[in-house]
Amino acid sequence: MGVHELDRTQARRIAVRAQLLDAPRPTDLLAVVQQLTLLQIDPTAAIAPSADLVAWSRLGSSYHPSHLQRALEQDRTLFEHDAMIRPMSDLPLHLAGASDWPHHERSRAWFQANDSFRRDVLELLRASGPLLSRDIADTSVVPWPSSGWTNNRNVTQMLEYLMLRGEIAIAGRRGRQRVWNLAERVYPAGIPVLSVEEAQHLRNERRLAALGIARARSAVQPGEPADVGEAGVPATVEGVAGTWRVDPGALAQLDQPFIGRTALLSPFDRLVHDRVRALALFDFEYTLEMYKPKAQRRWGYFALPVVHGDRLIGKVDATADRKNGTLVVHAVHEDVAFDAAMRRGLQHELDDLADWLGLALHGYPR
Description:
The chain is α+β, with helices and mostly antiparallel strands. Helices cover 35% and strands 20% of the residues.
């Protein structure tokens, strides 16, 4: 098979379309998550929790966080697993090889030494679940050793391992606290059993469809990988070194008209999450600066990337001041000089974001 040759504009449009950031907007939450494959959970709410912000950026103000909660806790069309929200149809891809957890020798030794603790947790959930972690007694034989915040957090560690093993599941949340139950009470019956190799292949294909274009190999990063192995077909991008992998379905759409729009993105949005890819394809430099001292920030605590058409054009430093009922725009950083269409698009999105949050917009001229 030959290598497809793409110019920068084509590559960017593939990425934007794959992430449902072109026009018109999608209208269904489940369809959005099925295409994106995930919503990342992060508790930071300088504007709104990231999962909600990603959903809003696709669906607009028709989306309400209660829709996500209902899908997770009542309809069971989505599930939460390892800090990600995913479509229930993808569950087999994430439970393949689950019985082998934990993988690391030190973790496995701790888990095996606490087998009686494991049985206690499962028996308690069977008798009394669903439960918060604080409702589960610590009957560990060997404490969990760590130099970090997880030191001696034995219940949390056991629950995490049992979730990754597919023995228990997150049944919902009370505020930010996870509610736990037996997996058989949360997941549907008859889940197909896949080999690890088959699941990995399918996950790579699903990830590539969500990204549109990606590297076969990339640097290891926390959470969802950014690479896709040998999924898709090979391609080069004009002016960018190396070979990419492209979703065949995305290539088939290249001859269709591209209709762009303006959107505000979460810093965890998959369009920008791989900072190396964002720089290579969009000439977009970004760092999440919430962990930096204020004096060292260039763009802001939780700056929102701005996409306009097939370009990433800047960042918005904003904060939801719920005490005073305002969405405060501290600064707009223009990576390129905004033209009238960009300013109108950004104004519309800021107005919509403020309305969605139930706040008055402050600090950006109308």
